[in-house]
Amino acid sequence: MDHAGTGSTKASSAAVPDRALLSDIEAAIERCTGSGGGGDDDRHVHEILFLVSNAPGAITFLSRRITARLEAARAPAAALRSLLLVHRLLRAGDRYFEQDLRGLWASRDLRVDAPRCSCSPLAAGVAYVSAGAVVATGACAFVHGYSAYLEERMQWVISQAGNLEPARQPPTPNHDGKPPPPPYSSSSSHDADAETLLFKLAMCQRLLDLAIQLLPDNNTSACTAARSAFGIVLRESFKVYDAFTEGLDAMLLRSRSLAGLSKPLRVSAHEILKKACAQTPDLKEFYHKCKRSNASKSLEYPLVRVVTPAQASAMEMEPKPIPEEDGQEEEPEAAAEASDGGGSTFPRKMETTISTVWVEFGEDDQLISGDGDDHSLKAVQPN
């Protein structure tokens, strides 16, 4: 720690980290991705984060070294440990580190796609597959599936509440360097809100698809790094599914206004609902299989709501006018008053009925009446 602190003082005064700090970072990468790495101990990950925080350009060096180790890996276990390190760094770093790491992934300084595993018989041109090759192929399939998951995961951010949210790319500036005006006017704000919601739902479905395909078999789950990687993916899928159900509920509340959307958005909504009908049963089965494994029994699984085609069709139905009670239509006069914005709160014309009341008087009572034209009731006084 003292040595790292001394290195941070020197690195802060220069744009390029000194060699000692870079050597410390590379040694920490080796400890994470070596044959003994990949376990549940994250102390080496925090060591890397501490070292990188002491130098502005160290994260670029870190990304390129991890990429080099991943491309040089030929065994599935070695490639998996490098991918797992990227995933842990993405989760453990602060939002500035996360933003920088995603930026380096976008610039291809950090690459997590297509590890070069040499265990695939098809890649080697082998026609006959032995039992041992089948195990190796399963390990390679998990590595490539995990790589695809990380590629998609790079397009998500961790919010301040600790939830996963899909990241939107910033708008492309104009030729003069100024940001473009807002793409939606007040008349199309409804489309803007719907587009944001549909984008979130589609991103959730893509990441959940990759998580479902990553379920390891008995041979792959024996690897410590594979168990750790799948455990992270499984816990993240819970948060992604929570975000999906929240968005689906919001879509259900807006189902009456889906018909008012533009045609591309209506098509997107249809595709999301169609995919939900096929994906939610698979997700429910996926969680059932995970519960049967010893490593995932203690987790608190979400309750998956299966979307049926009937529910999807009901959400896509255009709103129909609400009929009047007893099949009666609204009176024209009431409709005219409602359209004029009158102050009356009654939907129909009100009528007042005056009933006749007979009053009996005793002998001592006297009725005081007015002239013949006044028919109002007046007080009765005893004698």
UniProtKB/TrEMBL annotation:
<dbReference type="InterPro" id="IPR013809">
    <property type="entry name" value="ENTH"/>
</dbReference>
<keyword id="KW-0333">Golgi apparatus</keyword>
<feature type="compositionally biased region" description="Pro residues">
    <location>
        <begin position="168"/>
        <end position="184"/>
    </location>
</feature>
<feature type="region of interest" description="Disordered">
    <location>
        <begin position="312"/>
        <end position="349"/>
    </location>
</feature>
<protein>
    <recommendedName>
        <fullName>ENTH domain-containing protein</fullName>
    </recommendedName>
</protein>
<dbReference type="GO" id="GO:0030136">
    <property type="term" value="C:clathrin-coated vesicle"/>
</dbReference>
<dbReference type="InterPro" id="IPR008942">
    <property type="entry name" value="ENTH_VHS"/>
</dbReference>
<dbReference type="GO" id="GO:0005905">
    <property type="term" value="C:clathrin-coated pit"/>
</dbReference>
<feature type="compositionally biased region" description="Acidic residues">
    <location>
        <begin position="324"/>
        <end position="334"/>
    </location>
</feature>
<dbReference type="GO" id="GO:0072583">
    <property type="term" value="P:clathrin-dependent endocytosis"/>
</dbReference>
<keyword id="KW-0968">Cytoplasmic vesicle</keyword>
<feature type="domain" description="ENTH">
    <location>
        <begin position="17"/>
        <end position="164"/>
    </location>
</feature>
<dbReference type="GO" id="GO:0000149">
    <property type="term" value="F:SNARE binding"/>
</dbReference>
<dbReference type="GO" id="GO:0032050">
    <property type="term" value="F:clathrin heavy chain binding"/>
</dbReference>
<dbReference type="InterPro" id="IPR011417">
    <property type="entry name" value="ANTH_dom"/>
</dbReference>
<dbReference type="GO" id="GO:0005794">
    <property type="term" value="C:Golgi apparatus"/>
</dbReference>
<dbReference type="InterPro" id="IPR045192">
    <property type="entry name" value="AP180-like"/>
</dbReference>
<dbReference type="GO" id="GO:0005546">
    <property type="term" value="F:phosphatidylinositol-4,5-bisphosphate binding"/>
</dbReference>
<dbReference type="Pfam" id="PF07651">
    <property type="entry name" value="ANTH"/>
</dbReference>
<dbReference type="GO" id="GO:0006900">
    <property type="term" value="P:vesicle budding from membrane"/>
</dbReference>
<dbReference type="InterPro" id="IPR014712">
    <property type="entry name" value="ANTH_dom_sf"/>
</dbReference>
<dbReference type="GO" id="GO:0048268">
    <property type="term" value="P:clathrin coat assembly"/>
</dbReference>
<feature type="region of interest" description="Disordered">
    <location>
        <begin position="164"/>
        <end position="190"/>
    </location>
</feature>
<dbReference type="GO" id="GO:0005545">
    <property type="term" value="F:1-phosphatidylinositol binding"/>
</dbReference>
